[in-house]
Amino acid sequence: MSAPRPILDGIRVVDMTQYLAGPTVTRLLAEAGANVVKIEQAPYGDPTRTLAVQTDGRSGYFVQQNHGKRSVCIDFDDPRGREVLDALIAQADVFVENYGPGVLARRGLDHESLLAKHPGLIVATVSGFGRDSAYSDKVAFDLIAMAYSGLLHLTGPVDGSPVVIGTSIADVMSGVHTVAGIGLALFHRERTGRGQHVDIAMVDSMFHAHELAVQGHSITKGKWRQRRSGEKSGLNSPQGIFRAPEGYIVMQVMSAQWPSFCRVIGRPELEHDERFADLRGRHKNREELNAIIDAWIMTHRTDTEVLAKLEAGRIPSAPVLDPADAIGHPYFESRRAVRRINDPILGEVAIPGNPLRFSEYPWDLDQVAPLLGEHNAEVLTELGYSEAAIAELVGAGVLRSGDR
Fold this sequence. Notes:
7-stranded mixed sheet; 3-stranded antiparallel sheet; elongated; formyl-coa transferase, domain 3; Rossmann fold; 15 helices; alpha/beta
C-alpha cells in the first residue's frame, strides 16, 4: 500500500523560530508534511546549532527539533535579504515566530503588520507572556514560565523549596498548543478565507494544566490552597513515589482499586480496617499505610516482581523510568515514541517521536535536519532568483551557509 498525501502536504510555512518552543511547533508541522522553510539569522543561525551534546560539531538538540525543515540563512536586516523574506511570506500559509519581545515588531514583522499585507496568513507567535498581555514585554524562558504558572509552587518536598523539573515542559507544551491553534486557524480559514493571529503564551499553556489549584481555591472562598505534597499525593492515598528494591516505582490506588490492592499486598483485612476503610481514613492515616506498603515492597528482590504483582491486580503502577531506557523498550517501540532518524553527520539518532497519531497517515516521513543555509539556492530558485542573483547575494554576505 502506498502512502497517501501527508496531512499538511502543500501547506507552506515560514519558520522564524529558535531554541525550543518555536522549533517544536514547526517540527510537528514538518512531520505532518508541511513545507517548512527555516529562516536563520546570519551569520550563525539558530543558537541551538552549538548547544548541549555535540558530536563532530553537530548538535543533537538542533537535529531533534529541526529535522524535516529547509534552512535559509539570511541577513534579513539587509534590504536585499528582506526582499527574499517578504517574498517567502507572500507565498506562505503559516508564519511562526518566537523571538523576544519587540524584536520582529521593530522590523515590521509583527502580526498586525503581516496580516494587514496578507489577510489570509496564519501568524502564530509563541512567547512567555503572550503578545497581547499586560506583561508582553517581559523576557521569559521555560523556567520563568514554570514559576509564573504556579507549577513550580506545587513541585517539591512539603517543607522544602520548589524543585526544577528536569526537562523544558513549558517550551514543549506551548509548542504543542501552538500546533493545535494553527490547525484550528487553518480550518477557520478554509471556511472563511481569513487568516488570523494565534497568540500562545508559555505561562498560559502551563497554567491551563491546573486541575484543582484554581477552582478549589475559588469554590471554598479562599479557604483551601493546594500545597506541595512531596513524593506522595496530598489528596489521595496510597498514591505517589515509593522506594523499591532497585529504584523507584509509582502507584495510584483509587477507591475502586482499594479492595484489590489489599489482596495484592497480602493484607485483605485492611479493606475494612476502620483506619483505611474510606479515602478520608486512608489519607488521614497515610503515614501508617505507607509504612505497611514500604514493608511489603521490600519483601521482593526486584522492582519487576513488585510491578508484576501490582499489574496482575490491575493496580495503576509504573517504574520511574530513565528516559534513556526508553530506547528499545517495548512500549515506546510499539508506539514509535522513540524515533530513529539518519543524520549525514551524526548517523542514526534516536529522538522522541511525534505524539500525534493519525489513522489516515500512520507513517513517519523520512526527514533530515538541514545544514546551515543548506537550501539557500534551492529556495531562492523557487522564488525566481537566477543563479547570478543568488551568487551576488552570497558574495555580499546576505546569504550564509555552513557545514554543520
